[in-house]
Amino acid sequence: MQNRDLRTLREIARLGSFREAAERLNMTLSAVSMQMKALEAQLDGALFDRSTRPPRLTPLGRRVAEAADEVLAAEDRLRALAGPEAPLAGRFRLGLVASASARLLPDFLQSVARDLPHTRFDLRTGLSEQLEGLVAEGALDAAVVTATGVALGGGRHTLLARDRLILAVPPGEAPLPFLHFAPTTGIGRVIAAELAHRPDLRDAPRIVLDHVETIVACLDAGVGRTVLPEIDLARARQPFDATALDAMRSLVLVTRIGTPLDAYAERLAALLGVRSAISAT
User: Fold this and answer.
1) Number of neighbours of residue 70 by Cβ within 10 angstroms
2) In the predicted structure, residue 168 carries a pLDDT above the cut 80
3) Integer Cα distance of 41 and 44 in angstroms
């Protein structure tokens, strides 16, 4: 059974005439008649009462015509999912650095449910370098990471946000150790590059931590000073002295060039609630 036969049946049911259906479908009358006889043979039932002129649908024919409407509507929906103007659809694997997930995920998931009803995302968190490598390997479809350079070969960076780094120091005169976000991570490398120009911080006793929440809690307790993106320091509950630095943290969406999510990167950036700019290698 072919859907073109069902489309012909639908037109006959709508117009009440083989001849008019043939004209509508740009077919010959004999071709329409042969299609319907073939459909009846496949269904093993009479769809038309041919004792009348023109032939009329039998009760079975009317039920089949109604069911054909449902089948053809489903076909149209499938074509809409896959056509060149179709919205993004499918199941995708998205990675996020933990420090950005709390900030971005709630609004993103709400936006996806509203604007991309045929799309699902399987989520995982990790370090920037690890996640970008998984995108390059094809193990992830995209990832939100801290950029520490240009995209890996075959990849693209879509800028999500640029956050200024802030030196945060608890009130008081006592020298304090430096709370360093793990320098093996994306944001940690950005901070380490800034420390190279700041001997007062570079040479201070150092405590290495790998969670923003832990660093902010230590800052609140007054046991150390730190450098973090301004937006992360907004979690602090206690006042601190803030000095804006020249360095910026760039949060990017990593995709592989030519993939479905790469073609949709600008829209994904909008769903993440930011304005995007693109760079690629």
Assistant:
1) 10
2) yes
3) 5
